Structures are given as structure tokens and as C-alpha cells.
Amino acid sequence: MSPIRVLIADDHRLFRQGLRQICETVGRLEIVGEAENGEEAVALARRLRPDVVLMDIRMPVMDGVEATRRITESVPSARIIILTMYRQDQYVFEAIKAGARGYLLKDIDEQELVEAVRAVHRGEALIDPGLATRLLEEFRRLSQSVPEVEELTPGEMDVLRLVAQGLDNKSIAERLSLSERTVTNRLSEIYQKLHVANRTQAALLALRRGWATLEENHEGDYHKGHEGHS
After folding, report:
1. Are 178 and 187 in contact (CB under 8 A)?
2. Mind listing the pLDDT tens digit for each residue in 26-79?
3. From residue 173, how far is each of 163, 188, 189, 222 by CA, in Å?
4. pTM for the structure as a whole
5. In the listed set 144, 162, 180, which residue is the last one of a domain according to the structure?
6. Is 60 exposed, middle or buried (0-12, 13-18, 19+ CB in 10 A)?
7. Hey, what's the torsion of the CAs at 198, 204, 205, 208, to 10 degrees?
8. Which of 50, 119, 153, 220 is the most exposed place for a label (fewest CB within 10 A)?
């Protein structure tokens, strides 16, 4: 079995050396690179394609959360573990939203670290036990606070579908035999009902939920998608 390829990102050289020694001697893991800031971590991850990245939160140039977000987008196969001294919830939520698969405190012992790397490489997600309950509570609170999306009228859906296809108000008015003022008014209603601020956000929401496509849509797609919304 090939060794797990690990990239270390931390701005403290002695800590990086300690991680390298633990990984290579205790875990028999292969260290493919070291980065001293987030920007360097992103560049190395794109070039070296590691299996796992051990990522510090607070680093110069680019922090670990932003580096995690960029690596997740450009190297989706890399599994990222956040290692930090901080228990503040904001770091947990931001790191998880950015794509981190593990969040561990730096005071864990050597064997716990090695097992964490192996577990994340297997596809598991790891959260420090002292933070797991608060993390679940926060995600539950956020899910309960999301406003309900109101159902659009057929006329509003016609406008939204064309917005998703990239048409401007004048083209939509011509396509639907409406005045531009009517299109503008319908868009205002759409924004309010969908809780979005502009046409780009409205189009993305419609595409994400399957109410519209970039091409001509079939009647009833919105209602079918809306019925599946909870």
C-alpha cells in the first residue's frame, strides 16, 4: 500500500519539524512538502497533489481558512485537517464551511494525530470532541433561521427562467410580450420572495434548485422542484 502523502502548512518552523518527525517516524507517512503561509500552501498543494494537508489557522499572507477554501476548489482530492491552539467557535465553522475534513487542537498526542491523518484519508470527518456539540448546535440554529422561500407565480417564474438564461430586462419583456416596467416589478417581487439582492443571486438560486436551466426550460420544472423543497 502506498504511503499517505502529507503537506504541512504552519508558520512556525519548529512546529513543522515536529509534525514531520511524528508523521515519518510514528506514522510512516510521507511528507511531500512544507509551507510557512497559506499562499505557499495553496501553490504546493496544486503542484504536489497531497493526500492530506495539515493546516494551521493563523498564518501570514493568507490564513488557513482561505487556503483551505482554495485547495478544496482546486485540489478536491486533498483532505484537510485544521490544527490550531484555538477553541473559538468561529474558526470551527469557517474551516468546516471552507471544506476542512478535520479540526483538531495542537495539544493532541502523537498517536491521535497519526490516526486522524489515516481516518481523514479514508474519507472520515474528525472534529475535536470538545467542539462537536457546539458545532452541531450552531448548524442546527443556522438551519432553523433560514427564511422560507415563498412560491412564485407562473408569471414570475417565466421571468426568473429567462434571467437564469442571461437575458436582460428588455429582452425578457420582448420575449414575454410585457412592458419593461412590468418585468422590473416582477423582478422586485422575485427578489423579495427568494430573499436575494440581485438578478445574479436569483439566477444562481434558480439553477441550484433546478427551477431553471441555462437553456430553454420545460413547463412545470419549478413546481416539481419546489414540491421537493422542505
Report:
1. no
2. 778 999 999 999 999 999 999 999 999 999 988 999 999 899 989 988 998 899
3. 11, 15, 16, 20
4. 0.60
5. 144
6. exposed
7. 180
8. 220
CATH of the domain at 158: 1.10.10.10
Given a contact cutoff of 8 angstroms between Cβ atoms, the answer to whether 23 and 117 are in contact is yes
Beta pairing class for 52-56 and 102-105: unpaired
The per-residue pLDDT for range 141-193, each reduced to its tens digit, is 655 554 556 788 999 999 999 988 888 899 999 999 999 999 999 998 998 88
- Are 89 and 131 in contact by the 8 Å Cβ rule? The answer is yes
Q: Are residues 118 and 215 in the same domain?
A: no
Q: Which residues contact 204 (CB under 8 A, 6 or more apart)?
A: none
CA–CA distance, 114 with 129 (Å, rounded to integer): 17
Same domain, yes or no: 75 and 23: yes
Residue 221 has a pLDDT of 42
DSSP state of 161: H
Stronger pLDDT, 75 or 103, i.e. the higher one: 75
The predicted pLDDT at position 41 comes to: 96
Residue 57 lies in a domain: yes
In terms of domains, do 137 and 172 share one? no
DSSP state of 25: I
* Mean per-residue pLDDT over the chain, rounded: 82
CA 164/CA 207 separation, integer angstroms: 7
What pLDDT is stored for residue 199 in this prediction? 81
